Amino acid sequence: MSFFICYKREGEYRLDKKEYEIINVLNHNTLLCNDNNKKELYVFFGKGIGFKKKRGDIFVENNDIENFLLALEKDEAIKYKELLEQVSSNKLIDVVQEIVYKANEAFNYKINAKLNLTLLDHLNFAWQRQKNNIIINYPFLDELRFIYPKEYDFSKKALHYLKKKMKPDICFDESELGFLVLHIHAALKNEKVSNVLLNREIVYTCIEFIERKFNEKIDRKTIYYSRFVKHLEYAIHRYKKGIQLQNVLLNSVKDICKNEYYISKELNIILKTKYHIDLDENELGYLTLHIYNLKNRNK
Where in this chain does the record put each PRD domain (predicted)? Predict the structure, then answer.
């Protein structure tokens, strides 16, 4: 995925100054540009960067850019341009850009610029679904509130803003809150939304299995549940990146938490069979500790 974020901080400019030819002013906050060699397409997002600009002007990355500049490059810029041709509401385009701008501020300028593309695509499709009275609910919204609290809080405000600004054209259903949380989280972690959804499915599969082994329901609102989920997500991430951990407590864990270690090994068989994820002993040792805490703190 190709993107960058540049911003000022304490008078320092973080990228070398570059010049681009404007080929289209999409709105006051968005420019479609070519680089100097006219080989690559870019979409730049920034407050007011399109004001009084016109086709053929030169856009310069400089210190006049306030706070931040988000950019989509190459294939993603082309996809965004094509998406704009499919979206009939300019209001929706503007509202999504404002949400992304606010998200980037709220999360310390760590938002992936692709959120402009993915969120607009999702909400445009959601609008079409609602016209046909098709509502899709995300079933694990309560869990998201505890696992991703910052993303959840921001998404609640974003949904309120979205509903307010889009009246009377459409009133987005409250069911969109869960999907907003997932999109914001994916943009923060520089992941595809589909990968975030897959991780949620894996977590749900693992928790269901553990509940069957415990023969009781696990409280999703505890810190121990949140820690288990985040550890499992990081373990999956490390596996995919080929990162290995050393667990100096492994032998002690095997000895003290025999039943929980056996459960972690059974979980790994499920992960390997269903999702092609094979965690090593060190990861299973850490997972065992979290399973132990789930079991004993759940009482």
Answer: 87-193, 194-299
